[in-house]
Amino acid sequence: MAKFITIGYGDSSGYERTDQAVRDAAHDHDAELRARGAVVGIAGAPVQVRNHDGADVQVTPGPFLRADLPIAGFGIFEADSLDEAVRMAAGTPCAVAQGVVEVWPLRE
After folding, report:
1. Is the pTM value of this prediction over 0.70?
2. What count of other Cβ atoms lies within 10 Å of the Cβ of residue 63?
């Protein structure tokens, strides 16, 4: 079974515009993913870490990545194929609440 990383993008206005029943179903879907062993979480405040040439660790508050929507959460899960991973991601809160989810195959 392959591992996949998901990055969910979304904001509170899109979330709040989505019908409550749809949001509830998406949160139930996340609970099912967790029950299957997925790691699913809401994004906290990021920091950037640099250690060029292994000589000096520098930590800068804030994201490096810029996008139209903020990063809202992450997931790590196993699936038999990319198609299955896409189906799994399609039911998550970011996907259904006016956001977007990237699905990245994890090469180990």
Report:
1. yes
2. 14
Structural domains of the chain, ranges and CATH numbers in brackets:
2-106 (3.30.70.1060)
Query: pLDDT tens across 44-101, in order?
Result: 999 999 999 999 999 999 999 989 999 999 999 999 999 999 999 999 999 999 999 9
Query: What is the C-alpha to C-alpha distance for residues 108 and 100, in angstroms, rounded to an integer?
Result: 25
